[in-house]
Amino acid sequence: MNPCILNILCLMVCIFSQVRGRVHYGYGRGKEHWGYHGEGNYDPEDWSEEYKSCGGKMQSPINIDTCDTIWDHFDHFSFHHYKQTPVHIENNGHTLKLEVDYRNHPRIKGGGLEGIYDFANLHFHWGSNSSLGSEHSIDGKFYPMEAHLVHYKSEYKDVDTAVLHPDGLAVLSVLFEVTPKDNKFLAPILKSLNKVEKAQTDEDITSSVPLRALLPRNHNKYFRYSGSLTTPTCNEAVIWTVFTTPVHISEEQLEMFRRLRTLNDSIPLTDNFRPLQEVNSRRIYRVERELELKNAIGAKIGYGGQGVDH
Ligand SMILES: *[C@@H]1O[C@H](CO)[C@@H](O)[C@H](O)[C@H]1NC(C)=O
Ligand SMILES: *[C@@H]1O[C@H](CO)[C@@H](O)[C@H](O)[C@H]1NC(C)=O
């Protein structure tokens, strides 16, 4: 192919990826200042020295003490364009991040949120073994992995603007529980993991999975509280939804995440969770509506059995 055409194509790809509005939260910009286990200059207990908000009173994650929750009723969540499949995967040295084609923006509303929230990215936190890995815990119990589906309020221009407002972001948190069987919905994503084993590598992916297949079957059972980003710059701008029902994953699948590396190649990208933060005077709300089949995620297209219900 003519090298000029290649250049033009490359330029178009570059412009496109900027238009898509990558979410950075202060990472991926030049020198890495923070990490979890010595791979940056600051470990979690010292983040606040460099990032003031990390020392705030409304930080995340937290332990959810179910006895201390307040029952509440919100309208049903509704998910738009959640059939979209991620088209881009990245190991940024702190997490595995997936993005979609933003021309058809997935968005959520309802669930007690005011207004519409546009999808920004999906990323994961996981452990070096399955006794830990999630950021949030419920009654002291940690899970081997937690996925965050990050959305920003559509009235704000982008994530960078949204994080300056207390209602700027809505993050949906999905907890994972180990089962002997693979989670077949994760398989297409995992197939691309070996291409992003090194930090700061990324890939466009064609074989992927609809976002909604990653949600628990009952998305009307959850905890709600106001908190922060769990990574610097720790802005207190997040309306958290922590789904009560976990989804499943096998040990073999978790092992694939554990093979990823941080920016320091000798330090594996595992245990990339922030330690628990104080709840302080915050209230944690609890919503539980039984599954109504017509509203079940994937009911129409048969994503059954995804949630491991108790
Ligand atoms: C799991 O990993 C943590 C952190 O590396 C470690 O402290 C703990 O002992 C491990 N637990 C098991 C059961 O291997
Ligand atoms: C990478 O991590 C190893 C093991 O902790 C450490 O000895 C080494 O100094 C680190 N390298 C850099 C460039 O920070």
UniProtKB/TrEMBL annotation:
PROSITE patterns: ALPHA_CA_1, ALPHA_CA_2. Residues 32-288 form the Alpha-carbonic anhydrase domain. The keyword Glycoprotein applies. SMART domains: Carb_anhydrase (SM01057). Residues 1-21 form the signal peptide. Its EC number is 4.2.1.1. GO terms for cellular component: plasma membrane. It catalyses: hydrogencarbonate + H(+) = CO2 + H2O. InterPro entries: CA_dom (IPR001148), CA_dom_sf (IPR036398), Carbonic_anhydrase_a-class (IPR023561), Carbonic_anhydrase_a-class_CS (IPR018338). Keywords: Glycoprotein, Lyase, Metal-binding, Signal, Zinc. Its cofactor is Zn(2+). One of its GO terms (molecular function) is carbonate dehydratase activity. It comes from the Eukaryota. The keyword Transferase does not apply. Reversible hydration of carbon dioxide. Belongs to the alpha-carbonic anhydrase family. This is Carbonic anhydrase.
